[in-house]
Give the backbone structure.
Amino acid sequence: MLFSTLTRSLLMAGMAVVSAHDTGSSSSSLKEVPNADNSLPELLSLQSIPANWVSSDQTKLEEGRIILTPKKQSKGSLWLKSSVKLEKEFTIEWTVRSVNYEGDSTGGMALWFISSEKMKDTSLYNGPAKFNGLQILVDNNGPLGQSIRGQLSDGSILFKKEGIYDKSFGSCLMGYQGTSVPVTIRLSYSESLVSSNNNMLKLQVDNRVCFQTNKINLPRDAIANNGLYNVGITADNGNTDESFEVLKMKYYDTVTEDALIPNVKAMGQPRMIAKIIDQSTGEVKTVEKEVLDEQNDHTSNYELFMKMDKIEGKILANDIKHLQDKLETIMNNQIRMVEQMNHLLEKLKTGASPNGEKQSIMDDESYKQFFSVNEKLEKLVQEREKLREVNQKEQSLQSNSVSSDEILKKLAVWLLPFIILTVVLAYYTFQIRKELTKTKLL
């Protein structure tokens, strides 16, 4: 993946990054001389592989190039004999090419910058499947075709060819087959003096940025064998005639000026083609989609259900809150009416008799039915309070979804008896007033 965009604002940011990682002196550009001990000399003048390099399997030097896989179903490797001491920065440039084959293959070529250890395993493109460091893989067996990608490991992961593509932290398309033109792969690393979160790791192919990140820190402590790393290249052509060749290799103890070029030359990134078929007309359309968009299309029914359930819960909660407010208003009105009724009854109970003595109306048989209605009304208020508590519990737990229609039905069931009782109470109140009027007249 590419960690920058091609906007003018980020171009200026890229220039700032260049100056931020210029940890050397101002004359660093004048010191861009390869480290001879860690680089390959001019191969055209050699008769054999240099003594400071170790080759294996079918690797051979021929006509100014080191051929890693000279024949069908062959393997090869080329490693620096001495380990490289990692300082604060470096740049490695490999000039390679692939000839004699084009198409899918289980083989590939890998560039290594890994901790210095005994490497007896050669199961991963003729290199170790378990390593501590960085691997750059070039192959045509992944889901995106011809590409170059980076894998990072701390030595705890066992890589396999089948699942290595899911463990890549960065990748881009690179057409290396079907052409005799070499490609130059440049790997640059710079350690920040301020924070490990501001390091720079950049991969370029022919001066075009493949990926760049500041989240990688190559250790220099005892975990990484005190900063000693092995540098090499391995290849395996599977069951094909593909010939992987090394033409140049240069190692710099600093970040070169070419490595600090702003990210204005981006390499092509993977794209997927989606086919859309119109069911009514049968018309077929093809649409380009980003890889991440393709991955985001895979959403399970369970995830959709959970999202819909969450939305429904929020809508229902808002609906119940509106009805709950109305119910609160009705309950408060009922309480005030009951208080007024009780106040009126108290006055009736302590009404004055004709001879000036207070007479309790409770003893009067004619008012028993009225007090019975009052008791029922008090029970109704208590039941209303219970209903209110139940509704509050249901809303807080959100365990049951109550529709607005059900609430209105319940309100209608409860309000109808109350209206009837209110009418009856009004009738008896009117009768009581008439009786009081008669009593005063007498």
